[in-house]
């Protein structure tokens, strides 16, 4: 590229005083790119934040990796636990008994998943201990028939600590009158809130030994819950453990909660495509800017051609002009977007205060602030696409400028 091509291209970004409209259109195109790029970065950061928040809350109750036996029964779970801990990725394991039943208190009846746990071991693989709102996880003692309810489940039943809740399970008792459901009275010893409606409204915790008696499992359990170092390596750990436990069924969080994360991924992809249209429209406004610039500079183009400038040089001049608008808009948009994504915790409260309303009520969304996680890979992709669109928009007008006939352009000058 020759120096005069760069100098003229940069000079053409400012139109002559007699035609300020071109400068205005250039500013609008640049502003559109700035806003589009900034909006993309901020929205994708929020989607990343929601995805991480969702994953954290789900894995605060669910297991990273789960080992279960045939018929939902794992007999020799002590040996399985010891063998699983020999894997370098496994941090801890905890047995569980899973059952379904009905909980009744007065006239209120709700269905729930009843999970039997060992409090000390459960605290090593989940965050349930830190999710307790009333009481402690270790309030569950064998033989005392205590139960811990999710917050929404407790509200639906009208239950509080110390209340007696009747648990009805499908395992029946054979009586002269026929098979009747098993019924056992439990005392509410605590209430937890995991921040996920699925768990808060449909999960109850009891001691492992009480659950074994309730389900008539003897010394067996339903399975083992494993915690691993890197949650994103769960599929590989699952494959590795499957070779060690060929007789057991092994699953991980990416398959057991695939719908949640697939939905968030699809939403993020669609939001990216929708907001990318803003950048595309702004970038292709550069076309109209350059077309008007070419019309305004016809005599200058003719003089340059007369002085020996090649058509490729004329084309480069206008490509530089359009690219400068795109690069400047992209850089400003990246700076604005990154600052916005990193300071959402400050910006959103100011908007709420100015609007006089709570945008994200904690009792509805279970979050007190808008989550945001900036990924520099997203920033790089957005900046690259924005620059590519701006560069693409310069090609046709620049080509038309290079095809102008000098004699025709100077005829009426």
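Q: What amino acid sequence fits the structure above?
A:
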């Amino acid at each position: 590229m020759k120096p005069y091509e760069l100098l003229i291209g940069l000079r053409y970004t400012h139109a002559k005083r007699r035609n300020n409209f071109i400068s205005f259109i250039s500013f609008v195109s640049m502003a559109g790119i700035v806003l589009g790029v900034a909006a993309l970065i901020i929205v994708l950061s929020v989607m990343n934040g929601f995805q991480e928040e969702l994953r954290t809350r789900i894995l605060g109750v669910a297991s990273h990796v789960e080992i279960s036996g045939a018929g939902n029964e794992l007999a020799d779970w002590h040996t399985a636990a010891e063998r699983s801990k020999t894997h370098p990725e496994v941090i801890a394991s905890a047995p569980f008994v899973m059952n379904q039943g009905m909980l009744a208190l007065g006239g209120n009846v709700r269905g729930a998943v009843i999970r039997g746990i060992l409090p000390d071991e459960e605290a090593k693989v989940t965050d349930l201990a830190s999710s307790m709102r009333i009481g402690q996880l270790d309030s569950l003692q064998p033989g005392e028939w205590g139960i811990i309810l999710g917050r929404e489940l407790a509200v639906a039943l009208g239950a509080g600590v110390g209340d007696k809740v009747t648990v009805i399970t499908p395992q029946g008792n054979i009586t002269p009158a026929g098979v009747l459901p098993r019924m056992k009275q439990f005392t509410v010893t605590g209430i937890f809130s995991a921040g996920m409606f699925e768990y808060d409204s449909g999960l109850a915790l009891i001691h492992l030994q009480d659950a074994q008696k309730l389900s008539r499992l003897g010394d067996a359990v339903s399975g083992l819950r494993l915690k691993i170092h890197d949650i994103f390596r769960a599929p590989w750990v699952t494959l590795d453990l499957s070779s060690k436990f060929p007789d057991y069924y092994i699953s991980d969080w990416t398959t057991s909660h695939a719908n949640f994360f697939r939905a968030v991924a699809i939403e993020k992809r669609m939001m990216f495509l929708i907001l990318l249209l803003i950048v595309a429209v702004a970038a292709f406004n550069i076309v109209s800017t350059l077309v008007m610039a070419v019309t305004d500079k016809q005599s200058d183009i003719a003089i340059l051609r007369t002085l020996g400038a090649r058509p490729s040089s004329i084309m480069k001049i206008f490509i530089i002009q359009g690219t400068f608008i795109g690069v400047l808009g992209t850089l400003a948009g990246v700076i604005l977007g990154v600052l916005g994504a990193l300071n959402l915790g400050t910006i959103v409260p100011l908007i709420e205060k100015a609007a006089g309303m709570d945008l994200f009520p904690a009792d509805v969304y279970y979050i007190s602030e808008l989550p945001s996680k900036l990924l520099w890979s997203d920033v790089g992709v957005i900046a690259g696409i924005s620059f590519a669109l701006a560069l693409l928009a310069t090609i046709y007008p620049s080509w038309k400028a290079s095809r102008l006939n000098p004699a025709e352009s100077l005829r009426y000058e």
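Q: And what stands out in the fold?
A: Residues 51 and 264 are 6 Å apart (CA to CA).
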